[in-house]
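User: Study the shape:
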Amino acid sequence: VQLAESGGGEVQAGGSLRLSCSAKTTTFTFYSMGWFRQAPGKEREFVATTTWDGGKTDYADAVRGRFTISRDNAKNMLYLQMNRLKPEDTAVYYCNAQWVGDYWGQGTQVTVSS
């Protein structure tokens, strides 16, 4: 599977962004999908995940209640709606697919200014 993120940018604290991840595969529904992020000088960390049908989701404590993960299996798309953004959300955000291995996109930069 090939993954490509989009939708990053710079926003002021309290604002919103919607990230998208396009998956190039004929078996998108086989994959559990998720979002991770990596801030400068820090390790990559889990943000959110969803099962193959979107029926179950999970979030990191730091984003729960502010971020929403969703997927559109008909379009091979994964989304991350990010609301009430904080400066500490600044990072490169990566799309992740899991099925018989881990697959990653190139990442999209999100910068939240105070």
User: Anything to note?
Assistant: The longest strand covers residues 17-24. The radius of gyration is 13 Å. Residues 58 and 105 are 20 Å apart (CA to CA). The mean pLDDT is 97.
